[in-house]
Amino acid sequence: MDLKGMVLMEWLTQVILMAATAVAFVAGWVAASFAVAMYVFGAGVLVALAVCTPDWGFYNTAPKTFLEPVSSDEAQFNILDLFPSEAAKTAAEIRVSGGEVPTRYNGSSGKRRKR
To answer: Membrane spanning segments where (predicted)?
Structure first.
């Protein structure tokens, strides 16, 4: 089920349950029986369950394609390649090695402001 299918399923669930509630109210009022209202509403819930729970074909109108799996050897990459600037790479190298990041890289002057 894709995202559009999930939105459709949610909408269908709400419409079916609202319609079942209205029909159950009227049926219970006419029959002057709370049990009749609950039976009719229960039937509506079962209809909603049958329509919305299975992954019907009309829920898959815009399926997403996923990437092909890669082996663990191909998945190795250098984390420093994710940083766009040299300053960020240098700061990341220092963090990875466990050192202290110089103030020019972390954007602070090292002094605290007084309140």
So the answer is: 12-32, 38-59
What is the per-residue pLDDT across 88-113, written as a single tens digit (0 to 9) for each?
656 666 665 665 655 554 455 555 55
pTM above 0.70, yes or no: no
Same domain, 77 and 43: no
**DSSP label of 86:** H
7 and 43 co-located in one domain: yes
Residue 113 phi/psi, 5-degree rounding, is -80, 145
For CA atoms 16, 22, 26, 32, the dihedral sign is positive
Is 53 found in the same domain as 15?
yes
In terms of Cα–Cα distance, which of 10, 18, 24, 20 is closest to 53?
10
Q: Look-up: residue for tokens 């029909």?
A: 23
Task: Quote the domain boundaries for residue 28.
Answer: 3-59
Q: How far apart are CA 52 and CA 103, in angstroms?
A: 56
Distance from C-alpha of 28 to C-alpha of 40, rounded to nearest angstrom: 8
Residue 109 sits at the vertex; the CA angle it makes with 100 and 97, to the nearest 5 degrees, is: 15
